[in-house]
Automatic annotation (TrEMBL):
SUPFAM superfamilies: Thiolase-like (SSF53901). Gene3D superfamilies: 3.40.47.10. Signal peptide: none annotated. This is Lipid-transfer protein.
């Protein structure tokens, strides 16, 4: 296996609404400029480009082709795309480097959720025969999951509010966060329900945004970064799409992905892609993260750009290593309803 590391990361500000097109070009151009400029690279130095986005969110077919305009028509590029969060594009780029065909890859993801009714659009990922015709939106599905855990005694509304309060406090140091600030757990619990048992603070905001990171192999990574975040394991697993066919209070696919990636020791930092407070509690249990710092960036609860929020978790975890604040880090990404599909990426610094 080739040694591969994250050597660069950049993110557009997470905001409620942008005024650009749904192909993401206006968000991606400055992100590319930032990540390539910081590394002293040009577009011609990138051996492979891979993106993650969704035509459902963009509202038209093959929207990712229009996004390539952000790269430019010349020179010709080696490019691919996944119809998923760009964390899975990162996985594809890691595999591409493993083949030995390229040494440097750029991964990017984008989503302009403000263009439509996101929470109803997400209904389209459900079983098209028995569930989607009922039109449960993403809040309703997450509410069913949260209620299952409360009724089972797996977590409490107090614990859910503690997740929100900690996330918003940590996000104060993240200039790209959409939601941040100090708030007490008691104040959060006094607020009304949005979708019982979920209050507004239990749910990630609707966000427009984009992100990009650069992967490099071996000596090329050492040339580009003073302290690369070396990927020691990356894997993904999926649970049943049938909401009634699995225990919604657990995430065996997350545990399976972590085992396949080689999680066998404590990590200093974990960036978890949990768009709902109770989902962080599910993930912490599946990963056994006792004593690890969770989401120092504030996490998806403080900015959740569709199809790049998972990639951002990898970039933020890598940033913790590159800055010397952590030696071992875990990044997690999710896709599908109620934590259906999960990816785990383990990274470490080597001094």
């Amino acid at each position: 296996m080739r040694d591969v590391a994250v050597v660069g990361f950049a993110q557009a500000p997470a905001v409620r609404e942008t005024h650009g097109t749904t192909n993401g070009v206006e968000m991606l151009v400055p992100v590319f400029h930032e990540v390539l400029g910081a590394l002293g690279l040009t577009k011609s130095d990138i051996g492979f480009w891979c993106s993650g986005s969704s035509d459902y969110v963009a509202g038209r077919a093959f929207s990712f082709i229009a996004a390539v305009d952000a790269i430019g028509a010349f020179p010709p590029i080696n490019e691919s795309h996944v119809e998923a969060d760009a964390a899975w594009a990162c996985y594809e780029a890691w595999v591409k480097i493993q083949t030995g065909e390229v040494d440097v890859a750029l991964v990017y993801g984008f989503g302009k959720s403000s263009a439509g009714k996101l929470r109803r659009v997400m209904t389209m990922q459900l079983d098209p025969y028995t569930v989607a015709p009922l039109w449960p939106d993403s809040l309703s599905v997450a509410g069913l999951q949260a209620r299952a855990g409360l009724d089972r005694g797996a977590w409490t509304e107090q614990q859910m509010a503690e997740v929100a309060a900690r996330s918003r406090a940590d996000a104060k140091s993240n200039p790209r966060a959409q939601v941040k600030g100090d708030v007490s757990v008691e104040d959060l619990l006094a607020r009304p329900y949005l979708a019982d048992p979920l209050r507004r603070h239990d749910c990630a905001p609707i966000t427009d945004g984009a992100a990009a990171l650069v992967l490099a192999a071996g000596d090329r990574a050492r040339e580009l970064a003073e302290r690369p975040a070396w990927i020691t394991g990356i894997a993904h697993r999926v649970d049943s799409a049938n909401l009634g066919g699995r225990d919604l209070t657990a995430s065996p696919s997350t545990a399976g992905a972590a085992k396949a990636a080689g999680l066998d020791h404590k990590v200093d930092v974990a960036e978890l892609h949990a768009p709902f407070t109770h989902q962080e509690l599910v993930l912490r249990g599946a990963l056994g993260l006792n004593g690890s710092r969770i989401n120092p960036s504030g996490g998806a609860l403080c900015g959740n750009p569709m199809f790049s929020a998972g990639l951002i978790r990898i970039g933020e975890a890598a940033r913790q290593i590159s800055s010397g604040q952590a030696d071992r880090a875990l990044a997690h990404a999710t896709s599908g309803p109620a934590l259906q599909h999960n990816l785990v990426c383990l990274m470490e610094g080597r001094d």
